[in-house]
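Replying to the earlier thread about multi-chain prediction with a worked example.

Input:
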Amino acid sequence: MELKELYQEIILDHAKNPRNKGKCDGFNHDAKAHNPLCGDKVHIYLKLEKDKNISGISFEGEGCAISLASASILTDTLKGKDLNFSRKVTNDFLNMLKNKTKITLNSLSEDQITTISSLSGVQEFPMRIKCATMAWHTLLSALENKNK
Amino acid sequence: MGLDVQDLDCDFYAISCHKMYGPNGLGILYAKKKWLDVLPPYQGGGGMISEVKKDDISYADSPTKYEAGTMQTAEVVAFAKSIKFIEELGIKNIEKHEKQVLEYGLEQLRKNNSVNIIGNPKNRASIMSFTIKGIHPHDIATILDDDGVAIRAGHHCCQILHDKLGIPASARASIGVYNDKEDIDVLCESINKCKKVFQI
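Result:
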């Protein structure tokens, strides 16, 4: 059943108990976005070290289960990763939804790949793709936006 | 809802045809003749002029001076059919039918403890706005859609009201001439499915 693909256990868990919610300590990059059509909001905070490592990452936001789960999974996956790697994961994630490709990055654990891939059910719901991609697009903006 | 623009004595009245079982992208703007005659055209184009000289222009009489360019002929013809459809059914009959289904719908939704119906106006149009505790309206809409129930979710062009109500969005089920009590039963069953999917 397609609906079950969309609302998988992992997604509901992240939506109900979002990880890394709030402003992370000492963040130096951030970006926010909102979708005026549906009212979803997301604000991503990053602490990017001089060696391009993301030592802190968090988000604030409100929205549907898909958008909250997506933001939560994003922060959980990229904490401690470096900038280039984060861009690659984002690219893979966006490609997964757009072109139905699989996420195969070597440096992600099997668990992490399973978690991110849980959002692939959104492919079958064109109206909901933006819910899933908003946080990741916002991450790309945050990586560009040096705030302090 | 029936209305009489002369009884209302309004200067202008805007109507969306798609709210009358008509086509999208078409509307009616009613205006008193005195305003139509004094206001300037808002757009130039074919058919709205009387005479064009090098230094001077005069416009066609109203309402033609506001009807620049090519008309959406197909939509206009389709809308005439929609009006006929409503007239044949009779607006009073439509109101009566919708009210019956609405009352049944409200009664059924009220029985569901997780559903919060928004607003309790004396004169309610045939719409039911609601939220379900713990499920965002967009998720509700997707799950209902899976059962063939089309509702609208979001802030319905009323962000300020939603801020005041302290909710990010709401779900809204509208009842039309095509709906009956059975549709309400499907809606209610599908709402229970939302709770199952979200394990509430």
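The mean pLDDT of chain A is 91.

Feel free to reuse this layout for your own posts.
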